[in-house]
Amino acid sequence: MGTRRILTYGAPILRQPTRRVTDLDGDLQRLIDDMVETMYAAPGLGLAANQVGSPHRLFVANPAENRDPAKLLIMLNPELVETEGEILFEEGCLSIPDFREDVRRARRALLRGIDRNGRPLEVEGEQLLARIFQHEMDHLNGLFFVDRLSPAKRFLLGMKLKRAFLDPKT
Ligand SMILES: [Zn+2]
Fold first, then answer.
1. Residue 141 burial by CB count (10 A; 0-12/13-18/19+): exposed, middle or buried?
2. Does residue 136 have an active-site annotation?
3. How far apart are CA 104 and CA 142, in angstroms?
4. Omega prior to 43 cis, within 30 of 0
């Protein structure tokens, strides 16, 4: 086990949709363990595989501040099957350190996928957990939370992001 480097805004793999997991082999199990350790070390509430450079469609999350192991969620090939309501709340991202913005998200979300052993997994989240689900699903589809902002906000933030991550020397 070990932590992996978290890629930041500008890394091409973060803009690519991830691929469905088919092999639940040793390499994948190691990746999952490393992702959990990396998420806790960051610290963060969720982490998608492409954030550590893997093209697989999977994420790990734990909304509990005390890292209660019972709250740890490992989800492979997740699909967002149902959303409800709307909530505006501040959001950040391990791949965009030091940037936080209010993002509109569904209040409740239902996810369907499989666990690390290939068993069907269905999880419903509200509030914070629903927000984490939607944030990680965005990552798995090559999106960032900043893509959810209004065009005017995105324009202003885009220049700051460019300066911070894409060409920091200019
Ligand atoms: Zn993120």
1. middle
2. yes
3. 18
4. yes
Q: How much distance in Å is there from the Cα of 80 to the middle of ligand 1?
A: 17
Domain total in the chain: 1
- The one catalytic residue among 37, 82, 101, 136: 136
pLDDT of residue 170: 56
Give pTM, 2 decimals. Answer: 0.95
10-residue mean pLDDT profile of the chain (170 residues): values are: 94 98 97 98 97 98 94 98 97 96 97 98 96 98 96 92 82
Give residue 144 CA to ligand 1 midpoint distance, Å: 7
Q: Does residue 142 lie within any of the structural domains?
A: yes
Task: Name residue, tokens 């209004």.
Answer: 150
| Domain hosting residue 148, numbered range | 12-166
Where does residue 60 fall: left (phi above 0), alpha (psi -120 to 50 degrees), or beta otherwise?
beta
